[in-house]
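Provenance

Sequences were taken from public entries as deposited. Structures were produced by running a predictor on each sequence independently, with no templates supplied. The record for Adenylate cyclase from Arthrobacter russicus is shown for reference.
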Amino acid sequence: MEPSHTGAEPADAFLPQNLSGPEDAPADAEEPAAVPSLAEQTPPDGAVPSALRRDVRALEAQLLGGERSLHRREVAASAGVSLLSARKIWRALGFPNLGDADKAFTPNDEVALRRIIDLVRAGKLTEDAAISLTRAVGQMTDRIVVWQVEAMVEDLVAARGLSDAQARQELVTILPELVEPLQEMLVYAWRRQLAAGVQRMAVRAQSGLDASEEGRDGDEDDAPLPLARAVGFADLVSYTALSRRMNEKTLAQLVQRFENKCAEIISVGGGRLIKTIGDEVLYTAETPVAGAEISLALAQAFDDDELLPQARVSMVWGRILSRLGDIYGPTVNLAARLTALAEPGTVLVDDVTAASLADDDRYVCQPLPEQNIRGFGDVRPILLSRGRGTGLVLD
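Predicted structure for Adenylate cyclase:
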C-alpha cells in the first residue's frame, strides 16, 4: 500500500497491500462475529480453588512477562498496524479470538508483533512468508506444549500415585522452576535443527541430486518436483485390533514406545521423521542408501521388540514437494500404497528404487509378482533384504 501524501498516513502505510489493504476495517469497525469476552471464557472464582487460581496467575505472569494489561487495539496501534493486520498474525500463531474489552496482552506482545511486522516493512520477508513462518511457530509450539504437559502429568501420576486431575494441579506449582530450562532447550534444539537444515539444503543436497540422475528423473510424474528424497512408511501390524483391547494407559505406552523407537532409528540413520499418524510414521532420507538402512532397521527393530507388533515398511526413491512441514507428490503416494502390500516384518521398494541399490552388496532385492496399484497401474514390488554388513548400529 502506498503512503498517503494528502493527509495523515495510516498506521500501517509501510506494509504490503495484503497486510494493510482495503479489507482492513477502521478502528471503530464491528467484529464480523460475536466473540465471547475473556471473562465469559474463564471459570467463575468459586469453580477453582483460590490457591490454584493464585498459582495459575503467578505462572501466567512469569510466562507472559507481566500481567495482562493491554487491549488488542492498543497492541496493534503500538505496532503501527490495523487491528485486522494484527489479527492475521495472532491467528497464525493460534491465539483465540478476543473482544475489544478484554485485557489480554502485555508489552511483550507489542514487541513480538512489531518484530514480525518490521521484517515485512524492511523487505526481508513478504507478507505471505511472514504468515507462513508465524503459522509454523504457532502450530509446532502448540504441539510441543501439549506433548510436554502430558509427559509431565503422566510422570506425576506414575511416580506419585496422583489422579490425573491432581497431577495437572500439581504441575502448576512445579512448572515455574522448569520454564527457563525448557525454554533454553527449545532454543538450543531449534538452532541445532536449523544448522542441520542448512547442511541438508546447501551441503549434502548434491549427493541426493547425483543419486536422482540414476533414479526417477525420467519419470514425468515427479520430475518437476524440486527435492530428490527417499520416502518411507512404517505401519504397525494389527494396531486397530490391539487398541480396542487395551486400556488408556497401555495404549499410551504402546504408542510412545513405537514413536520413540522410530524417532531414534530415523535420527541415527540421518533421516527426518515427517510425522506420526497413530500407528504409522512417515520419514525421508537424502539418498536411497540412507532410506534403505533406516527402513531395514525399522523392520528389524519391531521384529525384535517383545512388546510391539511387527511393522510393514516401504521405501521409494523419487522427487517430492516439501511444504508446511509435510511432503507431497507421487513418490509419497506410491510408498504409502506399497506399505499396504508388505508382509509383516518386511520392506518393499519399487523397481526404480531397487535399481539405485542394485550394485550395492549390502542389499538383496527380490522381485515379487506384479500388482495393480491404484493410481500407478501395474507395479512390481521388490522385497528389500539385508545383504553384507550389519546395518545401522544403535547406541
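The first strand starts at residue 227 and ends at 236.
The CA atoms of residues 314 and 348 lie 5 Å apart.
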